[in-house]
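WARN retry 2 of 3 for item q-0093 after timeout on previous attempt; input resubmitted unchanged.
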Amino acid sequence: FQMKDEMQTAVKHNIRGGEGSPSFRYLFSAEQLGGRAEMMAVITLQPGESVGVHPHDEAYVILEGAATVTEDGQARELHVGDAEFCADGHTHSIRNHTAAPTRFLAVIVPNK
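OK item q-0093 returned
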C-alpha cells in the first residue's frame, strides 16, 4: 500500500525541452516496483505546459482534462480514459492545449 501523503512529489522544469513546470506524484518508487516499471507517476500539466519529445517504452492514460499527444510526429487529442503507448524506437510528447489542468498516469516500462 502507498498512501497519498507518503508519496514522493516533485516539480520539474522544462522536461525534455517542454514548457513550464509539471508536477509529479510518484505512486511507487522503482525499488517498490521491483524492476517491473522504472516509473509510475501521476503528472499534472497546467494550461500550456508540456513534456518535450523523447524516446522510450512509456504509457500515458489521461485521468483528468485533455492533452495533445504526439507520437512519431503524428498528433492526437486525448481525453479522460484515452491512452497511448510509445514503444521502444519511437518518440512521443504531451502538451496541455486546454484552459484547465490535465492529469495523466505515466508508466515507464523496462526496455528489455
